[in-house]
Amino acid sequence: MAPVDLQALAESLVDAARRAGADQADALAMSGQSTSIDMRGGVLEHADRAEGVEIGLRVLIGGRQASVSASDHSPATIGEMAERAVAMAREAPVDDMLGLADPDQLARQRDAGGLQIADDRPDPSPDHLQDLALRAEAAARDMPGISQVESANAAFSRRFLWLAASNGFSGGYGRTTHAISTVAITGEGLGMERDYAGESRVWAEDLPAPEEIGRLAAERTLARAGSRKPPTGAFPILYDRRVASSLIGHLLSAVNGSAVARGASWLRKDLGQPVLPEGFDLLEDPLRPRYPSSRPFDAEGLATRPRKIVDGGVLQGWTLDLATARKLGMDSTASAARGMSSAPSPTNSNVILTPGTATPDDLIAEMGTGLVVTSMLGASINGTTGDYSRGAAGFWVEGGRIAWPVNECTIAGNLRDMLMTLVAANDALPWRAAEVPSLLVRGMTVAGA
């Protein structure tokens, strides 16, 4: 793909919008390329190569806004986008809280600086990715008891983006992702079980060896052989670190400014109140080097910074972009994100929950009888009340030890009560957008056999 001047593209979109009659405008230009290789049975199953350029434009006129996007970036298309966006905005409802940042709010650092979120080594070739996938597949297939490897994948992507706005902001950065994953199967027919392992990193040198990922997928799969339903009742539940971040994700959703401003959050009245047990901190740090969600500025051009969402168990603040901050009479937390054809909205970057001192085995022993959850499916979450119900699978615990694997059960509770009983293990893994250890919830309802 020929190099594209993303800065010039984004700035030309903004200029076109102003000429078309917009009061304010911001634009995002992004180029990227990705390669993905799937192996199965030692042969190539699927290979995918994609590259392209996308552009997105948002215009604001008197408290009204509209967003448009395109994959063509010719001058004619840019002019048509600006005209269409302005026409759409004139028909949109008025929201007086909409608007770009003031110039004195804008980030001074307008590139990724020392964040190291783009691998500076040459992009891996398709042959190299195929070799990684083959090695992961072989490691899983060679484990006794594995009947087949459903897929082994290795992938790489590199993206560049540039944000420009009529308030004078113009900045951009690149990002890379390396990934390896494997899905293994044991048994046949109705006795078939599957599980997976996968890892992704910004830098290739931070990835585990593909053999390690393949073996882990096989070990997880073999541990699921003979799964059955658990009993029904009230039991403690240990969320394995594979899924524990989902619990914290529900907390983050409840403190998101969009939900709070709509009155649709079960934590809307809890600012300054305990939401986690004493001693728990929940930190957001968008400036962690080599981490997947790191970024020097948000989608509105504000400088990102570390902050405590929860300090000592007490809720410190909401996650806000400019519009939700204005609605709530607060300042933005520089948390805006946006898609090509959508307006900014609040999101989180690199969250870290205080780990505990106990090992997962210690917490299993403390449970006595209960459920270890390793995978989840479906969800029924009431964002206003915090009522929670999800399908789950994992392992049943008796006498403080894992007794047998579990499938097809439902776990339920209320998020407020669940989060206030958390006990954290010491097994959080690095390199995740959510660095969360295994979490024990003292009491929930399990619906099984």
Automatic annotation (TrEMBL):
Domain Metalloprotease TldD/E C-terminal: 232-448
Residues in coiled coil: none
Domain Metalloprotease TldD/E N-terminal: 25-89
Highest rank taxon of the organism: Bacteria
Pfam families cross-referenced by the UniProt entry: PmbA_TldD_1st (PF01523), PmbA_TldD_2nd (PF19290), PmbA_TldD_3rd (PF19289)
InterPro entries the record matches: Metalloprtase-TldD/E_C (IPR045569), Metalloprtase-TldD/E_cen_dom (IPR045570), Metalloprtase-TldD/E_N (IPR002510), PmbA (IPR047657), TldD/PmbA_N (IPR035068), TldD/PmbA_sf (IPR036059)
Ranges of residues in domain Metalloprotease TldD/E central: 122-224
Entry similarity comment: Belongs to the peptidase U62 family.
Protein name: TldD/PmbA family protein
The organism of origin for this protein: Paracoccus benzoatiresistens
Taxonomic path: Bacteria, Pseudomonadati, Pseudomonadota, Alphaproteobacteria, Rhodobacterales
